[in-house]
Amino acid sequence: MQFELKTTDAQSKARAGVITTDHGAIETPIFMPVGTVGTVKGVHQTELKTEINPDIILGNTYHLYLRPQTNILEQAGGLHKFMNWDRNILTDSGGYQVYSLSERRKINEEGVKFKSHIDGSYHTFTPESVMEIQRSIGADIIMAFDECTPYPCDYSYAKRSMHMTHRWLKRCVTHLEKTPFKYNYSQALFPIVQGSTYKDLRIQSAEFIASVGADGNAIGGLSVGEPAEEMYEMTEIVTDILPKDKPRYLMGVGTPINILENIALGVDMFDCVMPTRNARNGMLFTAHGTINIKNKKWENDFSPIDEMDITFVDTMYSKAYLRHLFTSRELLGKQIASIHNLGFYLWLVREARKHILAGDFTEWKNKMVKQMDKRL
């Protein structure tokens, strides 16, 4: 994997770059649609490719390990072939899912023993086994196994957890060195900075992660309930330390405003379930604010969903029709809203990139944050 930094904004830390893997170029900043189990919910690959058009999507190690299981993925030739996706894929290590199973797991130095949310069966993830699983899945970018701490989290726990994440990273690196690629392309490892919302721990973790010299680096343990201001503060501390010549991935973030503010702090890559999850609940993101399409005010509004016409659904259907689909509980409504939201997220990061390259990102970002912070 290679990363070329094209330019940095003069009035912020926003960056425009290009990541290149064996599956093609990824222009940054980028938002990665979440395809947890090998599908971006409610969206065909054709729509994903032609309308939303991301350079990279995300899959999840925990979920793909349980279903369809790695032996099926290996027989298919990896996740790319299994889901018929010829562009880039990143896999999350499963650390966040294990964190979210707090009633169903036990963590120790060796790894994590957890109970499947599907059938109650017991499984163990270790740094070594998670590297093996991600080799079998075959993503272009794979994540080191980490422990994602909850919020709030007391200092002593956050410190112990951070150091264990660092020790697990060493084991991940050692295991990958003796484990060949399973398919005819390479994989890049991203380690994950932890440390909860404690400044000194974030500094320690960022310095340790930077010293590993990986192809890229991730920031984890944020967007787990902390106020946005704390997220921004921790992100800025970390991006000041992580190497400038490597891509930076802020995991699980966030709202359109969160994304723009973190781009301004020097983050290159994002993922979040919000555009599709909120879409399934009738919330649409637009450049002028959010729309709850279930509200009665849209009942006889026959204007297009979004006159910006980013994806085909935006002008093909009216707000009144989309509201009708939601009130009738028709699946098409969730599909339309998902395509719209994902299209908007990709438009937003690509527009940010244009303004970084043009030299007026900060002015544009401040205007967009005000516009989007409204309920229509």
Content of β-strand: 15-25%
Number of strands: 17
Unreliable spans are: none
Characterize the largest beta sheet: strand count, sense, and whether it forms a barrel.
5 strands, parallel
Number of helical segments with 4 or more residues:
15
Q: Which whole number gives the mean pLDDT?
A: 96
Shape, per Cα inertia axes? globular
Distance between the termini: 42 Å
- Structural class designation: alpha/beta
For this structure, the quaternary state is single chain
Residues in helices, as a percent range:
40-55%
Strands in their spatial order, largest beta sheet:
4-15-14-13-12
- What is the radius of gyration computed over CA atoms, rounded to a whole number of angstroms? 20 Å
How does this model look, in words?
The protein is of the alpha/beta class. It is built from 15 helices and 17 strands. It has helices at 45-52, 61-66, 70-76, 79-83, 95-100, 127-137, 155-177, 199-212, 228-239, 256-263, 274-280, 312-316, 319-327, 331-358, 361-372; strands at residues 2-8, 15-21, 24-28, 30-32, 56-60, 88-92, 105-107, 112-115, 122-125, 141-143, 188-190, 192-193, 217-219, 248-250, 269-271, 283-286, 289-292. It has a 5-stranded parallel β-sheet. The longest helix is centred in the last third of the chain and has 28 residues, at 331-358. The mean pLDDT is 96.
